[in-house]
Amino acid sequence: MFSVPLSEIPRTISFRTALMFLALFGCSFLALFGYIYWQTTGYLITEVDSALHREADRQNALQPELRRQELLKHTAQDTEGRLPNTLFDAQNRPIAGAMQALPAFRKYDRPAEFMWDKPNGHERPVRFLVHPLDDGTTLVTAQDIRDIREFDELLINALISGGLLLLLVGLAGAIALGYSARRRLDMLSRSIKKIVEGDLGGRLPTRGNYDDIDRIATVVNGMLDALERLMSEVKGVCDDIAHDLRTPLTRLIAGLERAQRRSLTENEYAGAIDTAIEDAKGLMQTFRALLRISEIEGSARRSHFTPVDLNTISADAVELFEPLAEERGMTLAFTPCSSAATVLGDAQLLFDATCNLLDNAIKFSPDDSKVEVTVLADASHCSISIRDHGPGIPESEREAVFRRLYRSESSRNTPGNGLGLSMVSAVARLHDMTLKVDDAQPGCRVDLIGNAQRA
Amino acid sequence: MTHVLVIEDDPVTSREIEAALHDHGFEVTLVDNGRDGLLSAVGDTFDIIVLDRMLPGALDGLGMLTALRASGITTPVLILSALSALDERVRGLRAGGDDYLTKPFEFIELTARLDALSRRRSPTAEASRDSRIRVGNLDIDLLRRSVRRGERKIDLLPREYALLEYLAQHAGQVVTRTMLFEAVWNYSYDERTNVIDVHIGRLRHKIDGQGDAPMLHTVRGAGYVLRSPE
Fold first, then answer.
1. What is the mean pLDDT of residues A161-188?
2. CB contact, 8 Å: A324 with chain B?
3. Span A338-366, mean pLDDT?
4. Which residues of A touch B221 (CB under 8 A)?
5. B88 near B81, Cβ under 8 Å?
6. What is the rounded CA–CA span in Å between residue A101 and residue B199?
7. B195 has a chain A CB within 8 A of its CB
8. DSSP string, A238-289
9. For residue B125, what pLDDT is reported?
10. Which of B86, B159, B221 minimises the CB distance to A319?
11. To which H or E segment does residue A229 belong?
12. Residue A386: per-residue pLDDT
């Protein structure tokens, strides 16, 4: 599999986002844990303090002698020294209890802490309260708080280890995320590089889960489809141009060479030159038609559009082709629309397009057949429909016939340069019109449908 | 002799134009920019000006033409342009051009159009304002739109009549299919098979078909000419 250098990972957005969330999560973890810690330890210490106060109050209420007796008894019982309450005389000498000396304190009746050196040598944290009694003696109530300290430590340790774990897992997650994002992007960029290098059939990999990258990849793939189609069209056009112009050029050169080779009479020379000029003119016409289509496709002529009645356009075209049809015994039936069929457009171009369609219909129809031209209009659309009784266009060729210079096999022998329908299609595109080719059984039906222009 | 001013910056094209016009019997003066073109057109008398639309320098074709018309020079101008778009054509004609030809063109097309333009200016053009045109024994009544050849009355369809009228107005000159198409159908020509030939064929059948000497001739590689039989 593809590997990603570790140094690349910190640059990925995923890694940075994960890191940011880790930091956020760490902060809230600290805050939460700190709060719990503070609350818990605070509670425990408060409990101890109130116990100390209670004991002091209780002892205060006792007779001095009884107090001494009880403390002695308590000390004897409390061998662990968990509650080392001690009574000191006026000179701070211990009278009864486990402590040997009065711990340093700031104020009476205010709990404080000190480290107590136990008689057995151990050191223990002790929380104590110093209370002056009426008879001049001093009472110290105290409690060993080692358990609380240990609990504190436990909590802190848990915090640290939990935090470390969080950090580790978070970092690992961030690296994993960054790695996978990086790998995915690498796969995408590798695919794109391949496409750039010329593999136009290549597509970006998708996972099918419609995540962000998948959606972008899908859009890019759609763009690549369009690009591939355009490229193949351009290539097709180039191939077609090369192919279609080679034949007349070869014929032209062959004719000229023949004239050069043979010693001809003046008349034969004139004939050869005439033929050569005719051939060259044919080539020129093809180029002119190609230029015209490019010009139509590249133009932003919509700003010059004026309302055009398709009835007029069709009538003009039909009138122009009438004699041609008649010459071949064909009927050219024109059915105008009873109302105006007005579209916004360029009359010249629409006329040219209609003529091209009509020309095709007549060219590809058998003698003595019928070609129908119908103009239709409703509230939203206007159309010119041309129907012939010729061989029709096979389903498989209906897209191809609009390509420049495309000639279907069956039409190779009819005159024409294969640009007529491309020109029509360019005009249709410029006018936002739909160009539809249907099977009329028998024959072919072409509809040029545009948006109606309201008067 | 007809004197033509050719304003064209491309040396190859202008030499070709010069050669073609010379062969056709025109006297040619070449200029390669708009400023010199304007000076020559104002200073000298030319019968026709051939003007390239794209010219280098501050004064391009249309600018030069506008200036020319503003200074009251009415010499017919034929505009040459690589832009075939219809509105370009309209702009060219609006700026004061009399005709518009798109590159690449055939020289026969250029000379035929120049013939037509020079004819438009010559005194004989006044005759066409008459209500009658006579070519040989062909008699066209422009007001009643009726045509006779000798004693025979010829019935023509409106479009056939328009064709004949245009041909008769340019009798003796070669008229190209493109010119006919633009004049009679009011659309610019788009290299359309042999449609016009069929229309001409019908017209020819009607005027020459009854055993009269032929008047409507096809000029190979160029177009048609209406000529009196003598």
1. 89
2. yes
3. 88
4. 274, 277-278, 281
5. yes
6. 139
7. yes
8. HHHHHHHHHHHHHHHHHHHHHHHHS---HHHHHHHHHHHHHHHHHHHHHHHH
9. 41
10. B159
11. helix A212-261
12. 92
CATH annotation of B3-122: 3.40.50.2300
Provide, as residue numbers in chain A, all residues whose Cβ is less than 8 Å from the Cβ of B198. Answer: 323-324, 327
**Is there a shared CATH topology between the B3-122 domain and the B127-226 domain?**
no
The distance of A229 to chain B (nearest Cα, Å) reads 28
**What average pLDDT does this structure show over B18-25?**
91
A289: nearest CB among B191, B201, B220: B191
State mean pLDDT over B212-226: 86
Its CATH architecture, for the domain A229-298, is Orthogonal Bundle (1.10)
Domains of chain B by residue range: 3-122, 127-226
Task: State how far the Cα of A220 lies from the Cα of A228, in Å rounded to an integer.
Answer: 12
Give the start-to-end residue ranges of the domains of chain A. 1-199, 229-298, 302-451
Q: Compute φ and ψ for B32, nearest 5 degrees.
A: -115, 10
Bridge partners for B78 per DSSP: B50, B99
Instruction: Look at the domain A302-451 and name its fold.
Output: Heat Shock Protein 90 (3.30.565)
Measured between CB atoms, does B104 come within 8 Å of chain A?
A: yes
Whether the predicted pLDDT of A417 surpasses 70? no
Q: Which fold has domain B127-226?
A: Arc Repressor Mutant, subunit A (1.10.10)
* Total-model pTM: 0.63
Rounded to an integer, what distance in angstroms lies between the CA atom of residue B75 and that of residue B96? 10
CB neighbours of residue A142 within 10 Å: 28
